[in-house]
Design brief:
With 162 residues, the chain is an alpha+beta fold. The chain has one domain: START domain (Alpha-D-Glucose-1,6-Bisphosphate, Chain A, domain 4, 2-Layer Sandwich). The chain contains three helices and seven strands; from the N terminus they run βααββββββα.
């Protein structure tokens, strides 16, 4: 049996020169999420509510993104956590959920620190490949967040690639 490695966490951090309310709204509204995370979302800010980021709308339903992922907890303008699945290319572990915790901290009036922690990793080669995939993917997500705040929402027909 392959159990979760509680000592293995993927952590990403970024600071953005905007107030915490604006950044919180980016993560907790459909409009905000579509401005940087995915071209289509199914989202409801409630415990057990959907946190589905649909990245590839040409794929069959169930393979478009984070279908069936749910909000696990939240503290307004402090933290949100959600379950997360693996991309379809990791077919053997696609339906096994990990979880993500995003923490928000005001540094100054118009400066916010965001810490993303991705947990729930198992010890096996396919899980290691998924970890490496997300090590890069979360960098892109956070840089797109910053870009969407400083410049413009992401144009999903020609997405910004940092």
């Amino acid at each position: 049996m392959n159990i979760v490695n509680l000592e293995k966490n993927l952590i990403k951090e970024i600071e953005i020169e905007k107030n915490i309310e604006l950044i919180w709204n980016k993560f907790t509204t459909e409009e905000g999420l579509m401005s940087f995370f995915a071209p289509k979302v199914n989202f409801q800010l409630s415990i057990g509510g959907p946190f589905e980021m649909l990245f590839d709308l040409k794929m069959p339903i169930g393979l478009q993104g984070s279908e069936d992922c749910k909000i696990l907890s939240f503290l307004p303008q402090k933290m949100i956590s959600f379950s997360w699945n693996n991309p379809p290319k990791f077919e053997h572990i696609r339906d096994e959920k990990t979880w993500v915790v995003i923490e928000f901290q005001t540094l100054e009036k118009n400066k916010t620190h965001i810490k993303l922690t991705h947990l729930g990793w198992k010890n096996d080669p396919e899980w290691e490949s998924a970890y490496e995939y997300f090590d890069n993917a979360w960098n892109i997500v956070l840089k797109r967040l910053k870009y969407s705040i400083i410049k413009d929402p992401i144009d999903w027909n020609n997405p910004y690639l940092p």
